[in-house]
Design brief:
CATH class of chain B: Mainly Alpha
CATH architecture of chain A: Alpha solenoid
Largest interface: A-B, 36 and 41 residues
Largest sheet of chain A: none
Helix content of chain A: over 70%
CATH topology of chain B: CHAD domain
Order of helices and strands of chain B: HHHHHHH
CATH class of chain A: Mainly Alpha
Number of strands of chain B: 0
Number of domains of chain A: 1
Distance between the termini of chain A: 24 Å
Strand content of chain B: under 5%
Shape of chain B: elongated
Order of helices and strands of chain A: HHHHH
CATH superfamily of chain B: CHAD domain
Oligomer: heterodimer
Structural class of chain B: mainly alpha
Number of helices of chain A: 5
Number of strands of chain A: 0
Radius of gyration of chain A: 19 Å
Number of helices of chain B: 7
Strand content of chain A: under 5%
Chain lengths: 144, 173
């Protein structure tokens, strides 16, 4: 007889959630590493946030140290991507404002965005090269 | 973030009914002072708390019904409103003294408008009665085999019992 979804054991459920959110991170980080445009960077950030929240929320079911290390690693990606994202938002608002004196700010923001994007792209590529998902799965004991 | 204690010998449904109402209360209690002050830093922190709560709820979407979709949509709406305010303050903070004063003034006016809209939204959609109903909903659902078992144990026909419970905890909206 099939169990109803709510009848599953909480540990099994929590680990399945973490595992599936890690899959999303792998997918979106890989896409953003290939072509770090505004949409992909945003999607990678959201997938990381969701995964990190699952690590915190279900901390009782995973080893503490590896989880902390992974969150630290992702934090650095989040910080770099926040630099890009903040400038994307600022550029949108700048255009919407139609402020007559906005040209100088726009040029500065575009230059800063370009520099931040370069750093982010390099960090994403480094992460992607390291086969991190297999290592993280092992250290979090997501699969028996 | 508040640490939640999960009962490892219980099902997802039982744990969800314990943890999610508690999480909702912790999140809800933060709102009033934050919205009253309108302080950008406090609003930013509240926005992060809303995000964490929403992402946690999403992890249980698969075992909930359509009311959860409604609550998630409400949380998304709240998050977008908080995001719009945060966008203004983050952008304002990136501007140097000499940068476009007109843009800076535009950002400040926009932020003040958005904060007012957020206060109205909160009063309409997250008033005390609505919050209580959402809390009751999270404490009663998802139903599982053991819940139905309890209802039968009270010698009430299961179908009648579930209809009655649905009425008691019907969420707002």
């Amino acid at each position: 007889m099939t169990k109803s979804p709510g009848a599953e054991n909480i540990r099994v459920y929590a680990l399945a959630q973490i595992s599936s959110l890690l899959d999303r991170v792998v997918y979106h980080v890989s896409r953003a590493a290939k072509s770090p445009d505004e949409k992909r960077v945003h999607e990678a950030r959201v997938s990381i946030r969701r995964f990190v929240q699952a690590l915190r929320f279900f901390r009782q079911f995973i080893p503490g140290e590896p989880s902390k290390r992974i969150r630290k690693r992702l934090k650095s990606i989040m910080n770099l991507s926040a630099e890009v994202r903040s400038r994307d938002i600022a550029l949108h608002l700048l255009e919407e404002s139609e402020a007559p004196d906005r040209t100088g700010v726009r040029k500065r923001m575009e230059l800063e965005r370009k520099a931040s994007m370069k750093e982010l792209a390099a960090a994403l590529k480094r992460l992607n090269r390291r086969n991190y998902s297999v290592k993280w799965r092992e250290s979090l004991r997501l699969e028996a | 973030m508040k640490k939640f204690k999960w009962c490892e010998s219980s099902s997802v449904a039982v744990n969800a009914r314990t943890v999610l109402p508690e999480f909702f209360s912790a999140f809800y209690e933060r709102a009033e002072p934050v919205l009253k002050s309108g302080d950008p830093k406090a609003l930013h922190d509240f926005r992060l708390a809303a995000k964490k709560f929403r992402y946690s709820l999403e992890m249980f979407r698969g075992i909930h019904g359509s009311n959860m979709v409604q609550l998630l949509a409400l949380m998304k709406d709240l998050q977008d409103r908080l995001g719009a305010i945060s966008d203004c303050s983050t952008t304002r903070a990136m501007l140097a003294e000499s940068d476009s004063p007109e843009f800076a003034a535009w950002l400040e006016a926009r932020s003040a408008r958005r904060i007012e809209e957020l206060r109205r939204f909160w009063q309409e959609r997250f008033d005390k009665a609505s919050a209580q109903k959402w809390r009751n909903y999270l404490a009663a659902y998802p139903r599982d085999a053991s819940t139905r078992e309890n209802a039968r144990g009270r010698k009430r026909p299961a179908s009648r019992g579930s209809r009655r419970s649905s009425r008691e905890v019907r969420p707002p909206g």
